[in-house]
Predict the 3D structure of the following.
Amino acid sequence: MPTSPHLSAAAEDFLAENQLCAFTTLRPDGSPHVTPVRFTWDGEAGLARVMTAVTRRKARNVLAQPGGRVSLCQTAGPRWLTLEGTATVHRDPLRVQEGVRRYAKRYWSPPPEPPGLVVIEIQVDRVMGLI
């Protein structure tokens, strides 16, 4: 079972703020694809979740390299945190529902529900930042 990274209370609080972040995946040619996203953090499981449609580039990149490395970087002024780990795309309705529930709690409204809604789960194993 993966070990969840230990974050300070200040880092946990920062990850609970209503902020956007930059999500980086790798295209099949190896070049980075960076896009703004909203995400949720589950500190107990060491899991970050990104809701998206299965047809979006970020999901297609992860599907092309299951378990590949990705990063999420949240910034607000001089404060920042980058979460790195391995990503997988899930279509399972229970996992998608959990992603939607956490998103609505963090951002005070549910995410958009495009056709093919999936959740990208990132098992975080490295955290860097300045909080």
